[in-house]
Amino acid sequence: MAVYTEVTDEALRLFLAEYDLGELLAFRGIAEGVENSNFALKTSNGDFILTLYEKRVDPAELPWFLGLMRHLGSRGLSCPLPVAGRDGVALRSLAGRPAAICTFLPGIWPRRVRPEHCAPLGAALATLHAAGEGFRAERPNTLGPRAWKPLLDRCRDGGDAVQPGLIAELDQHLSGILAEWPKGLPRGHIHADLFPDNVFFLEGRGGVPVCSGVIDFYFACTDFLAYDLAICLNAWCFEPDLAFNVTKARAMINAYNALRPLTQEELAALPVLCRGGAIRFLLTRLYDWTHTPPGALVTRKDPLEYLRRLRFHAQARNVGAYGL
Amino acid sequence: MAVYTEVTDEALRLFLAEYDLGELLAFRGIAEGVENSNFALKTSNGDFILTLYEKRVDPAELPWFLGLMRHLGSRGLSCPLPVAGRDGVALRSLAGRPAAICTFLPGIWPRRVRPEHCAPLGAALATLHAAGEGFRAERPNTLGPRAWKPLLDRCRDGGDAVQPGLIAELDQHLSGILAEWPKGLPRGHIHADLFPDNVFFLEGRGGVPVCSGVIDFYFACTDFLAYDLAICLNAWCFEPDLAFNVTKARAMINAYNALRPLTQEELAALPVLCRGGAIRFLLTRLYDWTHTPPGALVTRKDPLEYLRRLRFHAQARNVGAYGL
Asked: Minimal CA–CA distance to A279: which of A143, A105, A161?
């Protein structure tokens, strides 16, 4: 369900008339993505992605997201670039929604993460962090540590129905995480949602995966850089049975570290940052789970997968647990 | 929900290794389509569509569908062409499903049908019927008149909950349709599901829509040619408020007639063929409506839209009601 808004032919024609994109050749809804409506757009000039921003995205924040993508792209990160209309404006309106066209990024996201994906992912993350330097505007992390207690409070009613004792366990984890949360780590612009479906790969020589780019910056914000790495450790290094794959973690961290060396403070904070990353996705999933009517046309993601991750990180004494 | 089956990277790589399609550049699920899983596939050789055939399609019938597409394509209809692997085989297997790659067809299906779409549609339908000649194998219409009574019987229990008195009204319509159903009209291979989302258009000179091709032949069968036109009259000529647009109908029929002149018998039978077309889609929608659990991840289509169409056709005395 990635197309929430239908676009009529007339509306599309009027919209494209504002651009220099040549002749329209194809227009198809894309199945991937859960936050916005995405369309594959083909014109005589090439392939593009048209995004209609749906309710979850605050229109006032879109210029920041598009500006960040432009900044990252100009600083060497491969990512979609907003395409401006003839008047120089990239953020427009279509079918009653804010809308933007971005360049098409070749590549395929890995449906099954292999260890060979993790070094290129770590390198792409470090590249993203370095490329973000110099983009002056900041965007607070609205799903960062300060949001977690209020989120948990809003899950109190339905939470224990998901698993008995869940809320008490989360209360305990959360107070520990907040008490240990680091201060003063290197900050910058982070992706904050760098799951496998947001990273594209092409096949290099000998079948080795090469990262062709990063997409979907609509959770990006300004926060500790190492927290982004912690999110990736959560998103990329657990097997389908939720066992932690230390080979993947080591490859990811080492590749990151080679481009942007982690400080001693960042390395020491990695376990608590990972606990934070796990509880952040646990809480938003739990919120959706307890607030989505069972019959809704939305696939609810299991929050308990992140409880398993959280428990793993909670027993990690130091960065050694992550293969270093 | 047009992607029912996930394809892993490894499975896709092994599958594509059987073809000469060059390097894989992109792979994305397509949101359109409800019967099968469709993916947009881009390689260094161009754009393709990969289809995984899901439960509703009988694998034994796939060679007939793919053969028909090949036949129609070679006889001048613009439609997707099955692409064979290096061994000459087009119908293969992927992720536990029958699967085929077809060529990519440029164009956009009309989200809102304008009168200017209807003449090119009529011409495309006549072209399809003419191109089908010479394809010897027949496929019975499994959703034709003989299927309607059993379908209605399976809706008896839940039907009146959709609208009181619905089943009695349908019984009456159906017995009339079956009693008047014509015999001996010109037969051939019909598309049988030529709704707007199965017909692509490009913009010609002066903004005039030009039909760029026809897709989705998985309901195609061998039946009265004029019944296909009746289905199109149902699918293309009613406005969103379900008023019948006689301008659209006239344009469609005239364009069809110019390429494949309709016989007097076909013209006389048009009203009952239209009633048949309406009840066919009414019954399958009613069946889905009464047999789909309310919470299922499927958008149920309103059967009553077709009751309104059926009533319109039932008051049509002759082809004059369709603008001729």
From this structure: A143
Chain A residue numbers touching B295 (CB-CB < 8 A): 294-295
Q: What is the pLDDT of residue A1?
A: 39
Q: Are B282 and B310 in contact (CB under 8 A)?
A: yes
pLDDT at A55: 83
Phi and psi at residue A248, to the nearest 5°: -65, -45
Going B245 to B251 to B257 to B260, the CA torsion angle's sign is negative
B197-224 tens-digit pLDDT: 999 999 888 889 999 999 999 999 999 9
| C-alpha span between B83 and B80 (Å, rounded) | 9
A295 vs B28, B110, B295: nearest CB: B295
Chain A interface disruption, residue of B8, B25, B103, most A CBs within 10 A: B25
Measured distance CA(B26)–CA(B71) in Å, rounded? 29
Token look-up 């079956």 returns B178
Mean pLDDT score of chain A, rounded to an integer?
93
Phi-psi group of A96: left, alpha or beta (phi > 0 → left; psi -120 to 50 → alpha; rest → beta): left
d(CA A176, CA A236): 24
The pLDDT tens digits for A57-114 are 899 999 999 999 999 999 999 999 999 999 999 999 999 999 999 999 999 999 999 9
Show the domains of chain A with their CATH numbers.
9-103 (3.30.200.20), 115-322 (3.90.1200.10)
